[in-house]
Design a protein that fits this description.
By secondary structure, the chain is mainly alpha-helical. It has helices at about 1-35, 55-60, 60-95, 100-110, 115-125, 130-140, 155-180, 185-190, 195-225, 230-235, 245-255, 265-299, and strands at about 40, 50. It is built from twelve helices and two strands, in the order αββααααααααααα. The protein has a two-stranded antiparallel ribbon. Helix 3 runs antiparallel to helix 9. The radius of gyration is 24 Å and the shape is globular. This is Carbohydrate ABC transporter permease.
Length: about 300
């Protein structure tokens, strides 16, 4: 018994760094936010307790609710493009393809590259005056004049395409891991019974890949709703708020360093915005979780 308690104490010591980091970087900031969302606090001076005034302001804040709508557009567009493309690439690379390992590394590479670097590169690629996209389109005579990719009409599409390029490799790898866990005997038996490739995909691949797909979709939903880094670099939420998403709006309230930010820090109101944004993301994620569980019971 003494030996077991000694071993338990030694094992517990390994948890101390993680506990300290979690408390310092996770729990304390959360408690700090929960406190100051009831205060009028600019980051300096005294904090004035104002009760629920920040939330009353939030309900009337047109910029915030516009950012919520933009978040849904951005997340929806990213999910509709990223998930099918990731699954398609995973299915292709799961086959006996020459150079498959090299292609996996190439497709996964954007995931490990800095978002800021990716955003700067794509900013130059989509540049309206000398960007490569407009140059190619005009040389192919697909357009008669350069497209303003960062204008009100195309800005959201541009940031969605950049986000898709950066996310496809990550979800492709997860789908690929799920595909490789499916026994090959099932495909061989189905082929002997006369099932073609399409039939094998719908009857074997999709049903057995469902648990992995549910996890991937949940991760993709959370990441899409919380994503803002590439938008901050490329458009800063512009033009005229067309690409302003929830967490970019929150960032500008807490760290007003860009030209589109408020003049002063608004840590109290920013805490309320952060809480509301977290509730929205949590509600959507929870709704998806409930729907996926009901579908599991049905099928």
């Amino acid at each position: 018994m003494r030996f077991k308690w000694k071993r338990l104490g030694e094992n517990a010591l390994f948890l101390v760094p993680s506990i300290i980091l979690t408390a310092a970087l996770g729990i304390y900031p959360l408690l700090w936010m929960l406190r100051y969302m009831f205060y009028d606090y600019a980051g300096y001076g005294d904090a004035l307790f104002i009760g629920l005034d920040n939330f009353r302001r939030l309900l009337r804040d047109e910029l915030f609710w516009e950012s919520v709508g933009n978040t849904f557009i951005f997340a929806g567009g990213k999910l509709l493009l990223t998930l099918p493309l990731s699954l398609l690439l995973a299915v292709i690379l799961n086959g006996k393809l020459r150079g498959g390992n090299l292609l996996r590394g190439i497709y996964f590479m954007p995931t490990v590259i800095s978002t800021a670097v990716i955003s700067v590169v794509f900013y130059n690629i989509f540049n309206s005056y000398n960007g490569m996209v407009n140059t190619v389109l005009m040389k192919l005579h697909l357009v008669s004049q350069p497209i303003d990719w960062f204008g009100p009409k195309h800005a959201m599409l541009t940031v969605i395409l950049v986000a898709v390029w950066g996310a496809v490799g990550n979800y492709m790898l997860l789908f690929l891991a799920g595909l490789q866990s499916i026994p090959q005997d099932l495909y061989e038996s189905a082929a002997i019974d006369g099932a073609n490739a399409g039939r094998r995909f719908w009857s074997i691949t999709l049903p057995l890949l469902a648990p992995v797909a549910q996890m991937v979709i949940m991760l993709a939903i959370i990441a899409s709703l919380k994503g803002y880094e590439s938008i901050m670099v490329i458009t800063e939420g512009g033009p005229i708020g067309k690409t302003e998403v929830m967490y970019l709006y929150l960032y500008k309230l807490l760290f007003p360093v860009s030209t589109g930010s408020p003049v002063t820090q608004q840590l109290g109101y920013g805490s309320a915005v952060g809480f509301a944004s977290a509730v929205i993301v949590g509600a959507i994620t929870g709704l998806y979780f409930l729907l996926s569980r009901k579908m599991n019971k049905m099928y």
